């Protein structure tokens, strides 16, 4: 979970930079996890990117049809 969270945020980070945004412009995040018991591991990976000034976050436990992903992340940014 931690590794997938880190990888997801790294991928999103490349998109954010390509679009001319910065991490400081993230105002909200929505995190879907397949196993809420792994919240702490997800949170560790999340805190590697968001070290202070955390955006508002909602974390939801879901079932994902594709078996491999453990986490999906959606961010809202304001320019």
Put the structure in a nutshell.
The protein is an alpha+beta fold and 79 residues long. The protein contains 2 helices and 3 strands.
Task: Walk me through the structure.
The chain is α+β, with helices and mostly antiparallel strands. The protein has a single domain, classed as 60s Ribosomal Protein L30, Chain: A (2-Layer Sandwich). The protein is built from 2 helices and 3 strands; from the N terminus they run αβαββ. Strands 2-1-3 form a 3-stranded mixed beta sheet, covered by helices on one side. α2 links the parallel β1 and β2. α1 packs parallel to α2. The longest helix has 17 residues. The protein is globular and about 35 Å long. The termini are far apart. The mean pLDDT is 94.
- β-strand amount: 25-35%
Rg, nearest Å: 12 Å
Annotation, overall tally of beta strands: 3
Q: In the CATH hierarchy, what is the architecture at level 2?
A: 2-Layer Sandwich
Average pLDDT rating: 94
**How far from one another are the termini?**
30 Å
Order of helices and strands: HEHEE
Structural class by secondary-structure content: alpha+beta
The major sheet is characterized as: 3 strands, mixed
Tally of contiguous helical segments:
2
How are the strands of the biggest sheet laid out side by side? 2-1-3
Note the overall shape. Answer: globular
The named CATH superfamily: RutC-like
CATH topology: 60s Ribosomal Protein L30, Chain: A
Count of all domains? 1
């Amino acid at each position: 979970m931690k590794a997938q969270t880190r990888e997801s945020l790294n991928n999103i980070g490349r998109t954010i930079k390509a679009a001319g945004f910065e991490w400081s412009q993230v105002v909200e995040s929505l995190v879907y996890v397949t196993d809420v018991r792994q919240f702490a591991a997800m949170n560790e990976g999340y805190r590697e990117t968001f070290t202070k000034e955390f955006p508002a976050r909602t974390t939801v436990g879901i079932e994902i049809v594709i078996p491999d992903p453990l986490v999906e992340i959606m961010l809202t940014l304001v320019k």
